[in-house]
Each structure stands twice: as structure tokens, then as C-alpha cells.
Amino acid sequence: MPRPAGPAARLALAALLAAAACGGGGGGGASGPGGVPLDPTRPGDALLISALGHYDAANALAAASRAAADPAVAAAKASEAIAEYRLAQADLERLPVEFPQSIRLDNAAYLDGRCSYEVGTLSADPADFADARDRLDAAEAAFPGSPLLDAVAYFEGRARFQLAALAQAAAGASTAAVQAGYAAAWDEFRRSRQASATGTWSDNAAYYLGRADYELGYLSVHPLETGAVAPADGTPEQAAAVASFDRAEAELAAVAAASSYFDNARYYLGRSHFEEPSDSTVAGWQALRTASLDAAAAAFGQVLAVPGSFYRDAALYWRGRAHQSLAVYAADPAPELGAASADFHAVIAGASSWRDNALYHVLKAYLAWPAPGPYCSAARPGDASPASACAASGALSTLVASDPAFAASTYPALAASALSAAGCACP
Fold first, then answer.
1. CB under 8 A, 24+ apart: contacts of 248-253
2. What are the φ/ψ torsions at residue 333 (nearest 5 degrees)?
């Protein structure tokens, strides 16, 4: 099936940068014996107190940058935040040099790497995430028994995940190299959970374990190299992809409803079920595929039950895609096509970046409708506009011509091909 990358990539990058900033500030509490409180008279503590002041100021400025509606204000606040993170790092780097016996060395090492990570969330510069990765990796090696190990490993994992995601979006990316990045991130999230299964970052790490496995599976079936194709049915490569998706599904399904990552987890749970390939060399593969699509639709439905979810429009679109795919296996495809059309129309009616996708797929649904369909130019009774394949094609052309955000959409060409293949001539 055609899979233009534009809107999916836009969502992935937007979610990537939004989620990168989630996880809160601080994390620099006392790590001395018995959780010794900070004391400015204790060697090294004054520097840590100063660093925390800069760090907290940076977090406040970063939050203001993300909340600013004016791009100029956002950029200015981000620049100020980065400067404060750098001031914090200057204090943190002095601490082990000037006070090598301080009980705060692990705090300083963690916060030093964390500052680089937070800078990366503002700059989206791979160099900043690479710096965070290296600093946190060094902290992990230097302080393997630290009570901060779960935080150190979690943010090293996040830095590695960001690097993999940015590399994935870059031209000329290598599938194997990007997969190696996600696998390294997975190792850190597991290490974080092993260090503390109930700690501050445990819930976050549980979600990112599933996300990393999802990305590994996705890249296996959608390789990045030009001309590369998904592995053939029955091959070891396909089996490896299925194993990644199966792990992702188990990990993502385990994220609790109370988690702040619940809707994220359910969205990617749905995507995993949808993307997981079916092996046509196995008996009963159609039933297995149908079960996966049903599970995908159910997971997207759970996303839609979360008020204000960032993933709402994407979940609507992909639930529609799941129903559209289920129609292929149904004795009577009309109910599934009706459900798909309803979801696509809900996306079309809004201001979503998924509108061109939805218009193309509602067009495909109208062309696939059984009697009294298909609905080429005649409207399907009772449907909201666009209510036919030709009307959807016209709406898609108008959207692409009138909204610069969709100027590069490949869907008009795909729509024209679909109409031609179906023998549907629009007036």
C-alpha cells in the first residue's frame, strides 16, 4: 500500500520534541548517606546549590519558551534557558575538581548530563543529545551504585532515542544504524527499570521500552534505503520484525491507565498491531491479521477516550485505516467501510495535519463500497461532504492548492491513480 511519509513524519517529529521535554526538572536531590540534606557549609554543596539555582531557572525559561505563542519570544526564552543550563554545568564541572571527596559527585555527574539533554530538547541539535549521551554514560560507569542510577540510565536512554529518531528523519539514513540507536536506547530503559522498578522514572522507562521495540519493528518492515522493501513472508527477517512488534505490544499494553504516557502507549500499541506483518505462508494467517486489526482499532479507541490527547487526530485516522483494512477480510465489507469513513470524515472536518491522508483514504473507501456502491461521482446517501470519491478528490486538490502545509502532499497523484484504476471518471 502507498505510505507517503510526510504527515506521519510531521507527527513523529512534533511528538518527539514535545515528549523530549516531558519528565520534569530537578532530580538533583541529596545522594549522600541517608539522603543528607544540602548544606552550604559542607564541601561541594555550595556549588551544587548554585548549579541547582541555574538549573531551576533554566527549566522555568524552557517552559516559557514552549508556552510562547510568538516564535520570537519562544526563541529568546530558549536562548536564555540554554545560557542558564550552561551556567549550571559550569558549577557542576567545578565540583569534582575542587571537591573530589564530596558526597555529591554522582548528583553533579547526573545533572551535568541532564543539562545537555535539556539543551537538546530546545535546540533539536544532535550534537547536544550526543553530548548528553556521553556525559550520562560516563556518570553511569563512574557511579554504578548511585541511587540516581535509574535517572542517569533513563535520560541516557532518552538521549539515545532522540539521536536515533533525528537520524531516522535525516536524508540518507541507514536502517541498520538507526536500529542500533534504538536498541542502545532500549538497553538503557531496561537498566533504568532494573535500577528502580518503582522509581520516579520507572513509568516513563516502561513506555519507552515499548516505543523502542516498535521503532525497531517499524524499520524492519519500512527500511529507509531508497528502493528497499519489507522482508518477504516466511523469512527470518520478517520473523525478527514480528518479534519486535510482539515485544512492543506486551510492553505498551503494560503501561497503566494512570500513567501520563497512557495515551502515547495506546497509540503506539495500535500502530504496532497495525504495522505487524502477517505471514501468508502460515495457515490461518487471515484470522491472525483480522485479530491484529481488531486490536489496533481497540487501542486507538482508548486513545480517543483520553480528553485532550495529542494523538487524537492520528488515532482517528489510524482507526479508520484499521477498519478499512478489516473490510478486505469481511464477508460484508460495508460495516467496516462505514466505520472507516466515519473516522476519516471526523479528521477531514478538523484542522489536522492528517487531512490529506484522510481524504485519500475516504476516496478509496468510496471506490471499494459494495452495491449499491461504489460511489464514484454519486454521493453516498447520508454522508457528510465529501460523500463520493470524486468529491473527495476535489476536496483534496483544493486543500493542497490552498494550504501551504500540504503543498508537498503526494496524495493527489495517488488519488488520480486510484480513480483511474477503478474506472471512475470525475465530471
1. 248/210, 248/211, 248/213, 248/214, 248/216, 248/217, 248/272, 249/210, 249/273, 249/276, 249/295, 250/210, 251/206, 251/207, 251/209, 251/210, 251/213, 252/207, 252/210, 252/211, 252/214
2. -75, -15
State pLDDT tens for residues 355-412: 999 999 999 999 999 999 999 999 999 999 999 999 999 999 999 999 999 999 999 9
For 179-195, what is the mean pLDDT? 98
Instruction: Work out the end-to-end distance of the chain between its first and last CA atoms, rounded to an integer number of angstroms.
Output: 27
pLDDT tens for each residue of 258-295:
999 999 999 999 999 999 999 999 999 999 999 999 99
Single-letter residue type at 215: E
The distance from CA 54 to its chain's CA centroid, rounded to whole angstroms, is 30
Considering only CA atoms, give the Rg of the chain.
25
User: Exposure of 71 by Cβ count < 10 A (0-12 exposed, 13-18 middle, 19+ buried)?
Assistant: exposed
| Domain 8-26+44-225 CATH (choose: 3.20.20.30, 1.25.40.10, 3.40.50.620, 1.10.240.10) | 1.25.40.10
Distance CA 276, CA 82 (A): 40
Q: How many helices (H) and strands (E) does the chain have?
A: 16, 0
Q: How many CB atoms lie within 10 A of CB 385?
A: 12
pTM of the model: 0.90
- Ramachandran region of residue 227, left (φ > 0), alpha (ψ -120 to 50) or beta? left
Q: Are 261 and 203 spatial neighbours (Cβ–Cβ below 8 Å)?
A: yes
Whether residue 303 contacts residue 311, with contact meaning beta carbons closer than 8 Å, is answered with: yes
Give the number of residues written for the chain.
Answer: 427
Cβ count near 424 (within 10 Å): 19
pLDDT tens column, 324-356: 999 999 999 999 999 999 999 999 999 999 999
Closest CA to 246 of 282, 286, 278: 278
Q: Helix H segments across 68-125?
A: 71-98, 105-123
Q: Which three cell numbers stand for residue 304?
A: 480517543
From CA 79, how far away is CA 26, in angstroms rounded?
20
Q: What does the alpha-carbon distance between residue 13 and residue 245 come to, in Å, rounded to a whole number? A: 21
